[in-house]
C-alpha cells in the first residue's frame, strides 16, 4: 500500500465561530507525510501549527477537509475509535517534556505501554532499549527533576515511541534547550526516527534543524505552502 502515512487535505478550522472572538486559523491546509518521511513544518507564532498537529494527531477535528492515517479516513469516526487510532498510531512530543514528576524515567516510558496492554517485562525491556538508544541508560531510575533538560527531552522521545507509533508529531521538540544541547538532542531524535523508519512531522523555528529533514513546508495564511 503506497498511501502516505499522513494525508491532510483542505483542512479548515475556525475557533469560537459566531462570537466576537471568532478566529479562522486554517483555510484549506493540505499536507502529506510519506512513509518513513520526516517533514519539517515551519511557521510564525500563532500561524496554527499546534492546531494542525492536533488535527493530524486526532486530538481535534477540522471543520472541513479530510484526515487519513495510513490510507484510512479518520473524519467522522466516533471519539472512542479516534482515541484508539491515536493510541495505536501516533506519538507526540512537545516543547516541554510533560513527564510525570513522581515517576522515574523508566516508569514514564513503561506506563503508556501498560495502558496499551503490554506486559510489565516486555514494557521494561522496550523502555531500557529506548533509553540505551538515546544514550541515557544510566538515568533510568532518576525522576524527571533529577535529569537535565536535554535528558528530560530524551526520555520524552522514548515515551513517545514506546508504543511503536507509525507517525510522530513533534512541536518544537528541542525548543526549550540551549543551542548546543538542542543540536545533540535533535540528532538523537533523528537517529531514533531513522532507525525505526518512523514517519514524522516536526515543527521547528530552527532552519538548521529543518534543513536536516527530508522536506520543509511552511504554514502561512492558513495554508501549507
Ligand atoms: N481553543 C482555542 N480557542 C480559541 N482560539 C484558539 C484556540 N486554540 C488556538 N486558538 C487561536 O488560534 C490561533 C492559532 O493557534 P495555534 O496554537 O494553532 O498557533 P501556533 O502556530 O501553534 O502558535 P505558537 O507557535 O505561538 O504556539 C491563535 O490565534 C490562537 O489564539
Automatic annotation (TrEMBL):
InterPro entries: AAA+_ATPase (IPR003593), ABC_transporter-like_ATP-bd (IPR003439), ABC_transporter-like_CS (IPR017871), ABC_transpr_LolD-like (IPR015854), MacB-like_ATP-bd (IPR017911), P-loop_NTPase (IPR027417). Keywords: ATP-binding, Cell inner membrane, Cell membrane, Membrane, Nucleotide-binding, Transport. It comes from the Bacteria. SMART domains: AAA (SM00382). One of its GO terms (biological process) is protein localization to outer membrane. Residues 6-225 form the ABC transporter domain. GO terms for molecular function: ATP binding; ATP hydrolysis activity; transmembrane transporter activity. The keyword Nucleotide-binding applies. GO terms for cellular component: membrane protein complex; plasma membrane. SUPFAM superfamilies: P-loop containing nucleoside triphosphate hydrolases. PANTHER family: IMPORT ATP-BINDING PROTEIN, LIPOPROTEIN-RELEASING SYSTEM ATP-BINDING PROTEIN LOLD. Belongs to the ABC transporter superfamily. Macrolide exporter (TC 3.A.1.122) family. This is ABC transporter related protein. It comes from Rhodobacter ferrooxidans.
Amino acid at each position: 500500500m503506497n498511501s502516505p502515512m499522513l494525508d491532510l487535505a483542505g483542512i479548515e478550522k475556525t475557533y469560537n465561530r459566531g462570537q466576537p472572538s471568532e478566529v479562522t486559523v486554517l483555510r484549506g491546509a493540505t499536507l502529506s507525510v510519506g512513509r518513513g518521511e520526516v517533514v519539517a513544518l515551519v511557521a510564525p507564532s500563532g500561524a496554527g501549527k499546534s492546531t494542525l498537529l492536533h488535527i493530524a494527531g486526532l486530538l481535534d477535528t477540522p471543520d472541513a477537509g479530510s484526515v487519513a492515517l495510513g490510507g484510512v479516513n479518520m473524519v467522522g469516526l466516533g471519539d472512542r475509535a479516534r482515541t484508539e487510532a491515536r493510541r495505536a498510531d501516533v506519538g507526540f512530543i512537545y516543547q516541554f517534556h510533560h513527564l510525570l514528576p513522581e515517576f522515574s524515567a523508566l516508569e514514564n516510558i513503561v506506563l503508556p505501554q501498560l495502558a496499551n496492554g503490554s506486559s510489565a517485562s516486555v514494557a521494561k525491556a522496550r523502555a531500557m532499549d529506548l533509553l540505551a538508544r538515546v544514550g541515557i541508560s544510566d538515568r533510568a531510575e532518576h525522576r524527571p527533576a533529577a535529569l537535565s533538560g536535554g535528558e528530560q527531552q530524551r526520555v520524552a522521545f522514548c515515551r513517545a515511541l514506546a508504543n511503536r507509533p507509525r507517525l510522530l508529531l513533534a512541536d518544537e521538540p528541542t525548543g526549550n534547550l540551549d543551542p548546543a544541547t538542542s543540536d545533540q538532542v535533535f540528532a538523537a531524535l533523528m537517529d531514533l526516527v531513522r532507525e525505526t523508519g518512523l514517519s514524522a512531522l516536526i515543527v521547528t523555528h530552527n532552519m538548521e534543524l529543518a534543513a536536516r529533514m527530508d522536506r520543509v513546508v511552511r504554514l502561512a495564511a492558513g495554508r501549507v505552502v
